[in-house]
Amino acid sequence: MRLIVEKTDSLQGSIEIPASKSHTIRAVIIASLAEGTSVIKNPLTSEDTKVAVEACKALGADIKQNDEWIITGFGGKLKQPQTTINMLNSGTSAKIIMAITALGDFKATLDGDASLRKRPMQPLIMALNDLGAEVVSVNNNGCLPAEVQGPIKGGKTQVDGISSQYITSLLIACPLAEKDTEVTVTNLHEVPYVKMTMQWLDKQGIKYKQQNFQKFKIFGNQKYKPFEEMIAADWSSATFPICAACIIPNSDVLIKGLDINDVQGDKAIIDYLKKMGANITIEKEGIRVKGSELHGTELDLKDTPDALPMLAVVGCFAKGTTKLVNVAQARIKETDRIRVMCQELSKMGADIRETQNGLIAQNSQLKPSKLKGHHDHRAVMALTIAGLAVDGKTEIDTAESISVTYPTYIESMKKLGAKFQIKE
């Protein structure tokens, strides 16, 4: 699907932000591991969360999806999947499900689409093997497809923290191992996502100890319990309309549904933009964003790699120089987002260049262009915002990827006045 974007003079009105993908995936998997029936209210229904649901069903959970999701878990007693578990494009789901599958006393195969097959799984594979499983990358490249033979028993391991998803996977699976597990984390990034996982464990009464996010001791032979939980709105998704309202002159937008106190790291977008001079206020009804004159600055995105595509665009519209630093892990997401954003914004005439761990963007006079979305939902959404702020028509392909995390994005932006046109 192609998305045609035309210059929009201002954005006006209010929108609701959909539920958090990260919270929804954790909720589905923990409910599936629990003994009993859980209720998930306001879940995100997207391509990535559907993947988590189908994987949990394959492992024995009973899941009914209506306005609320009713999940009867398998209580740690997994059944062997009848076919390969296809994780499609969901990196978060793939890593957690790999660790969960390793709890079972059987062999199962996990696979994904072409993009997911390029994303590194080796740190998690090595950790699970240290803990008693036998996990093999079928193509011997540290990626999917992978054969998983459990069960993990517990023990000691070390894992690279370049992706928080490796740590999250172990934190969720290891309480159900027979013995205690000790995990040493090196090269820690994305701390807020680890905090999110710990918050879910705390609500469950799971016992563990941690030292500065570098050492974890997870006590074994524990159980998850059924729960009822309302899923918070997604700050990662909110990044796009918030930034759009900042860079498009005369805009006045109210973003509803967000919790400024939620553990999600991407709420830092408010601080990043205020540092650049944005006009953002927290009101009782939501977060009000008005068009602003932004100035470049240096932003450390170690904890918020998902913000890089949108902030790369913001940097092109801010006066002076914007430096996005300490975010090398953005290269191992759905795409190498550092390379992709530099490549596509350069087509629009941006003065932007890659560094090893980020991007440097100068204020630029962008022009419309035909752009590739690279099947990356965050790259596509970021490029649509760039298109709204330049004269003429900008075309982005693979726009269907938006449904991975923000299925109502086009509808929401059009409600604010964005000139979007879909072409199949």
Task: Using brief descriptors, characterize the structure shown.
424 residues, alpha/beta, UDP-n-acetylglucosamine1-carboxyvinyl-transferase, Chain, four-stranded mixed beta sheet, 12 helices, 24 strands, globular
Give a verbal description of the structure.
This protein is α/β, with parallel strands linked by helices. The protein folds into two domains: 2-18 and 233-423, Enolpyruvate transferase domain (UDP-n-acetylglucosamine1-carboxyvinyl-transferase, Chain), CATH 3.65.10.10; 21-219, UDP-n-acetylglucosamine1-carboxyvinyl-transferase, Chain. The protein contains twelve helices and 24 strands. It has helices at 21-33, 47-58, 91-101, 122-130, 164-173, 191-204, 235-247, 269-275, 308-317, 337-347, 377-388, 409-415; strands at residues 2-6, 12-16, 37-41, 62-65, 69-72, 85-86, 107-111, 134-137, 146-149, 155-160, 181-186, 208-211, 215-218, 228-230, 252-256, 279-282, 287-290, 298-300, 321-325, 351-355, 358-362, 370-371, 393-396, 419-423. It has a four-stranded mixed sheet, covered by helices on one side. Strands 2-15-17-16 form a four-stranded mixed sheet. The chain has a four-stranded mixed sheet with strand order 4-5-3-14, with helices on one face. Helix 5 (164-173) packs parallel to helix 6 (191-204). The N and C termini lie close together (5 Å).
